[in-house]
Specification:
heterotrimer, A mainly alpha, B alpha/beta, C alpha/beta, B: alpha/beta, Rossmann fold, 2 domains, 6-stranded parallel sheet
Chain lengths: 331, 417, 350
């Protein structure tokens, strides 16, 4: 693999795992109160603690950090899959319209007045799933799934749902801010309940790794992939559903956080080249770590207040993306 | 539209590996193939040729099961290709596409490895390397695919197809974008593979490549089979003329046949020209005058003489004497008859010797008749007959060279005589 | 002018030889081309003249409207007030047709006894009951300017911030707009008196302000000498939001004998870190009423069992309109907050 120095080639995975573990400890140690790495380790192995610092750790910090890592991994993986299927470097996980469906689900929950926990997340998940089904049905024709038609349908659906949400919000009046806060990506006040919902995504994260070879071959185009023996329709369907489901889970627990799904796959390709076996693994790790670190910045930058994490990811992601686009490297 | 040249009727089931049976296919509102039938034996090297839009690429895709025909079927060893799962079919049939794009930094070896997908994980890298070695391009293995030249990329794509270890290899204009050297190198590889038992079906534009490498040839026209049979029979000037609408000329040189082409001659007849030629001096005249719309005849030329070969290939009326013999009386009479029917008689700058001295009489006879008689000046230099040539040649119009004569003839119609 | 004989187009047109036959604008004779050109020029000139005339008319109309907005009438002003945006405002006589663009202002107007003169309120004005029956002029952020004008108000009350655009627009159209947006209780008192002036109910306003002062004074007396308690005021739960510097809530909490933790997080209504909340450990936890804000539910939130306020049962819920609307009911809010903080000081009183 000619990308990167020979040293990076061999140890990229180990480096990535080290980075992940380090980030995890960093995110767990830092916050409004600093906890030493040693204490972090003690808490992790010692189980739920009763002292105030321990309670903060187990009830507030740990679930939040875990959630950030899981959501980061989900978005980065979904982005990698979609960029591979669509051969388009500008694709992010939200193009399928699933995020709008999730937002609509949450809106309905707010308007109807259901308690946010757990209903908003569950309705968001349901909304995302229905949006996926709709967009999928629109892209299907005689057994062939046209991904570009599906994308167009996704974009159109997003617009339509935004309009519907606006109408609902006018009627909901003062609950508008509830929806705005929900949509604006954030890990604030998320706890073990959201982590439990997000755990559904863990098996999904493994799915694309089984299709890494197929994703590589699909880079030559669907027709060539057919010629080489790939069951293109089946692979497309499985991967698309996986990407959409990962996105739906992420959006339902933490709202819409931008740039992570778009930029992380490119970063990964920059380091390890285009082979999906490596890109998927590295995207997952980098996505998790970087989302965790972004949330850390959101937590400490304006303490005791907090920034929405989407602002942090956009703040760092946008210039990074511009840099990647301008660099000579093939995306 | 069959031109009556279906030399190879559908084979007995035992022999044919690939059978295309009455295949009809249309894109929405756009018919492409109808009633295409032919059978390919194991180990054959089949070329598929035909004018643009005749459906060659589409046919390949139907054979590979990528397109479903409305009628008819494609059978591989008796089993329909559409009955196979994609992966299974990929183990038996490989396709080298016309266009190949992969704008990512994969190495050539990784690209070839993708061809092993249908054969499972085990030993992919080694097989890929072997495929590259077979084609003599193992040195490209670690190079980045997008940085390779066109010729190198084509070889890698071929290696990718070979990595599938197919029984049948389909190629869609594999060398259209390559220079001459790479074209030949590529086809030499194909030939080697074919000799090793691989059945090859290759869509081509270059009829000479087809003639040189293909054993059987399928000529498509307007979505149907125009001809199917041994390559040298399908690529006859007549069939080519019917299908492509150009004049084709078959030549042989050093044991190899090759074709040259010229635009169809203009339909209006401009007159008849009789050539007194030989030793290759008349070949250019034959070609240019025929293109310009003249009916050309020639004589006397000896058999196996270059001009005789040209004239024969072009189907011109000629007075031909046996090889190495002097002109006999009957042949001389034939010559005279041909010359008499002509509107102008031309003596090229052929060397005159005892063998063709009598041709000069034809020239004098033409003058006597009042038919324009032309010759290239400087007969004395070409006289190897011991001076007998320099006899009375008054009334013959002299030209500095053949080009001037051609110029005159092609520029304007003959003066009436 | 020649007519091309046999030309079917000309025949069909049925014209006599004397005229230029024009089919699809094409002339058939060279000599008539000059005539046609002249015709085009005349048309052009007429159209241009008409356009100029229309433009002049529009300008005249526009100027006329603008001219009305430049100077007020010549007679000397009887009521002069400086509003919360610092603009000097003058009215010739007390307002008789009032439009209020925000709930707090509506409450204030009714409280000073001018409720019968209210002709338009915002969609969210729901107190007192009478306000609900008044014509609605749009929501908080986008008041319907046309509707407002159609009601012919002589006084429009607006809040600051998001409504300043609408206020500016109304200004241009020479509609009297007064911005009253107090951020403290003192500000409420001041604005009630200004409002009294504007509507000609000075006496009622003064009486009201005096009674409200009394309430505040009473609270102050009851809690005097007591230690200041740490208070966390929750505005929203997910994300956790609190009231910061410069809000009415901050003022109420201070007057009620508390120290508002949220002030350290910034101005307005900022997000607040849950971890810091646990670390700060307020004595009293007050949440604004909403779907997620039942004291029982609050106590069950992750890590909240560490809070002193939860352990001692000092978690309370308060109606939001009593603490976010800068109007007379803020005094009720003050009293409730004080009662949360020092229940013993308020035993026996309503």
């Amino acid at each position: 693999m000619p990308t990167g120095s020979p040293w990076t080639r061999r140890v990229w995975l180990s480096l990535a795992v080290v980075f992940l573990v380090l980030s995890l400890f960093l995110c767990l140690a830092l916050g409004s109160t600093s906890i030493s790495f040693g204490r972090v380790w003690d808490y992790l192995v010692g189980g739920a603690a009763d002292d105030p610092a321990g309670v903060i750790f187990w009830q507030l910090r740990l679930p939040r950090v875990l959630l950030a890592f899981i959501v980061g991994a989900c978005l980065a993986t979904a982005g990698t899959i979609l960029q591979g299927l669509l051969l388009n470097p500008l694709t992010d996980p939200y193009v399928t319209g699933v995020s709008s469906g999730a937002a609509l689900g949450a809106t309905i929950g707010i308007v109807v007045g259901l308690p946010a926990v757990p209903w908003l997340s569950l309705l968001a998940l349901l909304g995302g799933g229905l949006a996926l089904l709709l967009v999928y049905a629109l892209g299907q024709r005689r057994g062939h799934l046209n991904i570009y038609v599906l994308l167009l349908a996704g974009v159109t659906l997003s617009q339509l749902l935004s309009a519907v949400i606006s109408v609902l919000m006018v009627k909901a009046g003062e609950d508008l801010h509830a929806l705005l806060y929900w949509i604006m990506g954030s890990f604030s006040a998320r706890g073990w309940l959201e982590v439990e919902i997000a755990l559904f995504a863990l098996p999904l994260l493994a799915v694309p790794l089984f299709f890494a070879r197929e994703l590589d071959i699909l880079l030559q185009g669907e027709q060539r992939a057919l010629e080489l023996g790939v069951d293109v329709e089946r692979v497309k369907k499985i991967l698309l559903v996986t990407a959409a489901a990962l996105t739906a889970v992420a959006v339902s627990v933490s709202g819409i956080i931008g740039f992570v799904g778009l930029v992380i796959p490119h970063l990964a390709r920059l380091v390890v080249g285009p082979r999906h076996r490596k890109v998927l693994a590295l995207s997952l790790v980098l996505g998790a770590a970087i989302m965790g670190l972004s949330d850390l910045a959101a937590r400490v930058a304006v303490a005791p207040s907090e920034l929405p994490v989407g602002i942090v990811t956009t703040f760092f992601g946008a210039p990074l993306f511009v840099y990647l686009l301008r660099s000579r490297r093939r995306l | 539209m069959t031109s009556g040249l279906a030399i190879r009727p559908p084979d007995a089931a035992g022999e044919a590996q690939l059978v295309v049976d009455e295949v009809t296919f249309s894109y929405p509102e756009h018919p492409v193939l109808h009633g295409v039938s032919f059978a390919v034996r194991h180990g054959d090297f089949v070329g598929v040729v035909g004018p643009n839009g005749s459906g060659k690429s589409t046919l390949l895709r139907v054979i590979d099961g990528l397109l479903r025909p409305e009628h008819g079927a494609v059978l591989l060893d008796g089993r329909a290709v559409l009955n196979h799962a994609r992966r299974d079919l990929a183990r038996r049939v490989a396709l080298v596409p016309q266009q190949f794009s992969l704008d990512f930094d994969f190495t050539a070896l990784e690209v070839v490895e993708m061809g092993r997908y249908c054969r499972g994980e085990g030993g992919a890298r080694a097989s890929a390397r072997r495929a590259l070695r077979t084609l003599g391009v193992e040195h490209l293995a670690e190079r980045l695919f997008p940085r390779l030249s066109g010729g190198e990329r084509q070889m890698v794509v071929l290696a990718q197809a070979l990595a599938q270890q197919p029984e049948v290899l389909l190629l869609d204009e594999p060398v259209s974008a390559l220079d001459v050297a790479h074209q030949l190198q590529f086809f030499d590889c194909l030939e080697r593979l074919n000799r090793g038992g691989l059945t090859v079906v290759c869509v081509l534009h270059d009829l000479n490549l087809a003639l040189q490498y293909c054993r059987s040839l399928l000529m498509l026209a307007d979505g149907g089979v125009a001809a199917w049979g041994p390559a040298d029979e399908v690529l006859s000037p007549r069939v080519i003329g019917d299908v492509y609408g150009v004049s084709a000329h078959l030549h042989r040189h050093a044991g190899q046949a090759y074709l040259t082409f010229s635009p169809r001659p203009r339909p209006e007849r401009r007159g008849r020209v009789h050539l007194l030629c030989g030793a290759g001096t008349g070949s250019l005249f034959m070609r240019r005058l025929t293109e310009a719309g003249y009916a050309v005849s020639a004589g006397v030329v000896n058999a196996l003489d270059t001009d005789e070969v040209t004239g024969r290939e072009m189907g011109l009326p000629m007075a031909v004497e046996a090889a190495f013999c002097a002109i006999s009386d009957e042949v001389h009479e034939e010559n005279a008859a041909l010359a008499a029917a002509a509107d102008v008689v031309i003596l090229t700058d052929v060397p005159i010797g005892p063998g063709n001295l009598r041709n000069l009489e034809i020239l004098r006879a033409a003058v006597a008749r009042g038919t324009p008689a032309w010759m290239v000046a400087g007969l004395a230099q070409r006289d190897f007959s011991g001076g007998s040539a320099g006899v009375e040649l008054a009334g013959v119009r002299q030209f500095p060279d053949g080009a001037a004569m051609l110029d005159e003839l092609c520029r304007r119609p003959l003066p009436p005589h | 002018m020649r007519m091309r004989s046999g030309d079917p187009r000309e025949m069909r047109a049925g014209r006599s030889t004397g005229e230029a036959v024009r089919t699809s604008g094409v002339q058939y004779s060279g000599r008539s081309r000059g005539a046609a050109l002249r015709r085009v020029r005349i048309w052009g000139a007429t159209v241009a003249a008409m356009l100029v005339l229309v433009a002049a008319l529009l300008a005249a109309v526009g100027c006329g409207t603008n001219q009305k907005a430049t100077t007020p009438s010549a007679s000397p002003a009887r009521i002069a007030v400086t509003d919360d945006a610092g603009r000097a405002f003058t009215l010739q006589k007390p307002a008789t047709r009032i439009v209020s663009l925000a709930p707090a202002q509506t409450e204030m107007v009714y409280a000073v006894g001018a409720g019968d003169r209210v002709v338009g309120v915002s969609d969210f004005c729901d107190y007192p009951q009478d306000a609900k029956d008044v014509d609605k002029v749009g929501d908080f952020a986008n008041p319907n300017v046309e509707k407002i004008i159609s009601l012919k108000p002589d006084l429009v009350l607006a809040a600051s911030g998001v409504q300043s655009d609408a206020a500016a627009r109304l200004d241009e159209l020479n509609v009297p707009v007064v911005v009253l947006d107090p951020a403290t209780l003192d500000g409420v008192f001041e604005d009630l008196e200004k409002l009294g002036l504007l509507v000609g109910e000075q006496a009622k306003a003064k009486a009201l302000v005096d009674s409200l002062h009394a309430v505040a004074k009473d609270v102050e007396t009851r809690i005097s000498g007591r230690q200041r308690l740490k208070v966390f005021f929750e505005i929203y739960s997910k994300p956790l939001m609190t009231a910061g510097k410069g809000t009415l809530i901050e003022d109420l909490v201070r007057r009620a004998g508390g120290a508002n933790i949220g002030s350290s997080a910034g101005v307005g209504y900022p997000e607040f870190s849950q971890e810091v909340l646990i670390t700060e450990d307020p004595d009293v936890y007050i949440a604004v009423a909403g779907a997620q804000a039942e004291p029982g539910d609050i106590a069950k939130r992750p890590a909240y069992n560490q809070l002193t306020a939860v352990k001692e049962g000092r978690v309370f819920v308060i109606e939001d309109n009593l603490v976010v609307r800068s109007g007379p009911r803020a005094l009720q809010g003050l009293r409730q907050i004080a009662a949360f903080l020092h229940p013993d000081a308020f035993e026996g009183s309503e």
